[in-house]
């Protein structure tokens, strides 16, 4: 796993949106290691920030750590990144992060809402959440072809961006914003397709009652047609952590007369 072009594209696009953010985060939680792509972008923008990295995939953590070894940033600052291998719903340090950044890590989650609640738990009040994910139209052509062969399949964690916004609002965030874009990928070799599906976590996210037949059908498409085109619907989201008060308490505001 030496290159992550889709991760890089989404991280760079999301990073551009930080131009409008006035808040300067001091503590950033990276949820999902992406070969040190996101950390490098954020460190360039916020050089004083301290990072912590979490991912349920040990190989992704190892790749990110290897990318940082001997890097100029580490030599100049002497900083290292604390890494933790844990499930997406495993508790994070409470109210510690000014920003939580998750680049294509939701693909590893079983319950999106449980993850959003965990993220809200980790952010300080008014802390910033930025994430990227895949939307419901991802792999639409492939799912259609498999369905035509009588192989039912679905992607329950790849959902509409408006549903993602509603989940954020219900999980401790306000002002959720989501938008989408589409990428078309054209494959001529089955090996490249399978490599990308594994790296992006998309084949694991595609649930079917006949996984071996589904994989065989994909290989047949390459053998008989020599190509396979797929669409990725990319979702960009951000939101702000709500103020959480003890039960029975409310915020009281005083406004000057006139």
TrEMBL record:
Transferase listed as a keyword: yes
GO biological process: methylation
GO molecular function terms listed in the Swiss-Prot or TrEMBL record: S-adenosylmethionine-dependent methyltransferase activity
InterPro entries, alphabetized: Malonyl-ACP_OMT (IPR050602), Methyltransf_11 (IPR013216), SAM-dependent_MTases_sf (IPR029063)
Domain Methyltransferase type: 41-131
A Pfam family of this chain: Methyltransf_11
Keyword field: Methyltransferase, Transferase
Name of the protein this chain belongs to: Putative methyltransferase
Species of the source: Bergeriella denitrificans
